[in-house]
Amino acid sequence: VRGSKMGNPTLVQDWEPRALKQAPVKGKQKIQQAEKSGQPVDTVKKFNAGKNKNIVVDKNMRKLEDETESFAHKKVTLSVAQKIQQARAAKHWNQKQLAQAICEKPSLVQEYENGKAIPNNKVLLKMEKVLGAKLRD
């Protein structure tokens, strides 16, 4: 709305007409229907879309494939696991009582005694103090 000097407002439209675009056609049936009706259809096939071909093998990938060294974490040795069991049995404790004494979960004590745990020196030190036995080799 623009006002004149006299105070009479005059309405002015500043809009330009715009042409709306149609949404792209997707799907085989819809593409065929669009072609039959004469609508413009633009299809693009993507290069190797959905296929796992033409993989380039470089030097680094070859080194990884040829690698024979295993990268597993070291586990608690059986001698340490047996020492924990023997020291715990000498105090007449079960795994839960030992876990409570060192402020850890019973599952952790079980993993140490089964030889499945990754050794942690802080946990082993706590066990040594509570059990009063040397556990590490």
Description:
By secondary structure, the protein is mainly α. 42% of the residues lie in helices and 3% in strands. It is built from six helices and two strands; from the N terminus they run ββαααααα. It has helices at residues 28-37, 59-66, 78-90, 95-101, 106-114, 121-131; strands at 2-3, 9-10. Strands 1-2 form a two-stranded antiparallel sheet. A hairpin with a 5-residue loop joins β1 and β2 (9-10). It starts with a strand and ends in a 6-residue tail after the last helix. The relative contact order is 0.10. The mean pLDDT is 81.
Largest sheet, described in full? 2 strands, antiparallel
- What is the arithmetic mean of pLDDT? 81
Q: Name the helicity range.
A: 40-55%
Output the helix-strand order.
Answer: EEHHHHHH
Question: How are the strands ordered across the major sheet?
Answer: 1-2
Low-pLDDT residue intervals, each spanning 5 or more residues: none
Number of helices: 6
Q: Sum up the overall morphology in one term.
A: elongated
Quaternary status: single chain
Q: Which percent range describes the beta-strand content?
A: under 5%
* Terminal-residue CA separation: 91 Å
Tell me the structural class.
Answer: mainly alpha
Radius of gyration from CA coordinates? 38 Å
Could you give a short description of this structure?
This protein has 137 residues and is mostly helical. 42% of the residues lie in helices and 3% in strands.
